[in-house]
Write a structure and sequence with these properties.
Two copies of one chain form a homodimer.
Chain A lengths: L16 E9 L2 E8 L9 E9 L5 H6 L7 E2 L4 E8 L11 E4 L2 E2 L5 H4 L10 E2 L12 E4 L2 H4 L1 E2 L10 H6 L3 H11 L7 E5 L3 H12 L4 E5 L3 H10 L3 E3 L3 H11 L5 E6 L4 H10 E9 L7 E3 L2 H5 L4 E4 L5 H12 L11 E4 L3 H9 L6 E4 L1
Parallel strand pairs in A: 11-12, 11-14, 12-13, 14-15, 15-17, 18-19
Antiparallel strand pairs in A: 1-2, 1-4, 3-5, 3-9, 3-19, 5-6, 6-10, 7-8
Helix pairs in contact in A: 5-6, 6-7, 8-9
């Protein structure tokens, strides 16, 4: 049983144990009781988690993680209530409702100031380096002032919880895909992947003024949601056939912008073959490959730009929040199943089997 | 002997044969007498070449071209005088002094209208598909209205000829590198390669407001010219040592923009390791590789953008011309040797041996 979150300040908490999700190898997800999360540093906040969720990227280790006896804490998307703060935390108070981005960051380094918090000089990701995961009852949040975004007036029974939770990762990641591609009025955009990030890339492209949005995906319940988010065309075919369909839909030349929300090598190939000369491929699916074609016949000859990376969602939460709060957009529609912590292992199974699009966890 | 340029309209020309450069395999460059270039289509112009040159990219086949009995016409950079025009040519007249970009283009398709003439739907490159090369006495120019740019008032003894010739490729290509990288005021820019394109990437970055320009190159006469063009630092070391020096010069993080003007795989690796998180790698060296690292550990994790390609120099000539004409810039300084057509084979040898930076040809 992992003991990475041993508290040194037990008296601050009423609880002394909590439950959290660990992965021990491919397909092996378990819920454990571990010492409760607690403040360690003066810049920490302790957040009691209200909702968290399972990410498409969690399925990568679910497929391929080597056996790991000590386990790995899981979950990097959560919303919750501040239960305690360290002495140096200035912008948060106990009881604040907060959104946590999928990377924590100091908020003060040059990269944070530039809005690239995923490259924070002192930051990191949940579930590593002594920081717990979000698929749990509570989490110690480092650099709480830099990391967390408060949302006034939200209660634990708010119907907005799913959409607020989507700001933790998938909505901001879809936004990043479209933003890095400089999607603009009149663009034709191809979105590869009908997972939550792909669908929210559709929504984001629509918000940025794309005229035509071609969603490549083959699960009709998902592509129907994609149409609701703004997709004008759906291409269910894959491989050469799917590429030919997209090229036909785009006058033979391909799309100005291709948003790749999968991360597997065939999706990269699909992007290369559906983008227009002078166009942009923006990747937000975590690449499950290191080498790929970039030479004259793929990117260079047609002056194709390749961009993207881990979304600095911290930079986008405040920007995207108003339209979520006033109901203009409803990115929370990507959640189609809710489980409690005991249901998390089955939630992984359901997402892996494509029974569920995205599973929300009620802690 | 190639007979691709057989004229159907011999009467328009006083000459019936001309000399032109052909490559027959690695290291095998010869000058031949061939039937003179002549108009074939109503949209053609016939240009008598005043100056042409040898390109760093000509050295790629010079190193690796398989034996080719029929030979391949060489040269894609030239300036000259319009000797004749087809009946549909509207913007040119006999006697006009013109700059030819390294790709010919119709000037009317969607890509030309967008300024990406290297992806012209009906365009192509010199030396293929029945179009001759520029290292010759004359050339038939397809889509003359779309392809050529006239420069009023230039005579064949103008001291501006070298700089005007640089607009055919290397200056526009350096400009493209910097432009695609969105070089802007205050940027730190690394330029990889001290060939003509690398040096003119320095000049272009300087013109766009870069504050610090680190030139990676190890030929002092070239890097001295790089300093004259605006380089603030020169790193002569290669490999790990050179990368460490650049990182030290950039506070450990790398540069905002890296302009890669070489095209070999090690230069790509160098770019990946000297670019800052959130930065842009812009390639204009023709890649001599197809696959390269693009995954989490190279591009994705740091949100690095990879851009570049064959420069649509046609889009830049008019923009760059005024500063050339009024002497604000002198990109022609990259030419450090001039030969006549008979001297072309030795010119290749001299560039290959790094005796010469860039060889100009007096036709």
């Amino acid at each position: 049983m992992p003991l990475t979150d041993v508290t040194e300040n037990q008296s601050l908490n009423e609880r002394t144990i909590m439950r959290a999700t660990y992965m021990y190898g491919a397909g092996d997800v378990r819920i454990h009781e571990i010492p409760d999360a607690a403040l360690q540093r003066s810049t920490d906040a302790l957040v009691r988690i209200v909702r968290s969720c399972i990410c498409g990227s969690d399925l990568h280790p679910y497929h391929s993680m080597p056996d790991t006896p000590e386990g790995s804490p899981m979950g990097h998307e959560f919303i919750g209530v501040v239960e305690d703060i360290g002495s140096e935390v200035a912008t948060l108070a106990k009881g604040d409702f907060v959104i946590a981005p999928f990377a924590w960051s100091d908020g003060t380094c040059q990269f944070c100031r530039e809005g690239l918090q995923t490259s924070c000089e002192h930051g990191g990701f949940w579930g590593g380096n002594g920081i717990g995961g979000g698929q749990a009852e509570a989490v110690r949040v480092p650099f709480a002032d830099g990391t967390l975004v408060t949302v006034p007036g939200i209660t634990e029974d708010s119907p907005l919880l799913p959409s607020l939770l989507s700001l933790s990762d998938v909505y901001g990641t879809g936004w990043h895909a479209a933003r890095q591609a400089h999607v603009t009025n009149g663009d034709t955009v191809v979105v590869i992947g009908d997972g939550a990030v792909g669908l929210l890339s559709v929504l984001s492209a629509k918000q940025m003024g794309a005229e035509r949005i071609i969603l490549m995906g083959r699960h009709q319940s998902r592509t129907d949601l994609g149409r609701a988010f703004g997709a004008t065309d759906v291409v269910a075919a894959r491989g050469d056939e799917g590429i030919a369909e997209v090229r036909e839909l785009t006058g033979g030349h391909g799309a100005h912008k291709v948003l790749e929300a999968v991360g597997h090598a065939p999706a990269y190939q699909q992007a290369v073959r559906t983008v227009r000369p002078g166009g942009i491929i923006s990747r937000v699916g975590v690449p499950q490959y290191e080498e790929a074609p970039v030479g004259f016949g793929s990117l260079f000859g047609g002056n194709i730009t390749l961009t993207g990376g881990p979304a600095p969602v911290r930079a986008y939460i405040e920007q995207l929040l108003p339209a979520v709060l006033d109901g203009t957009v409803n990115p929370g529609l990507v959640f189609d199943r809710t489980v409690d912590l005991d249901g998390v292992p089955d939630g992984y199974r359901a997402m892996d089997n494509r029974e569920a699009l995205k599973v929300m966890i009620r802690s």
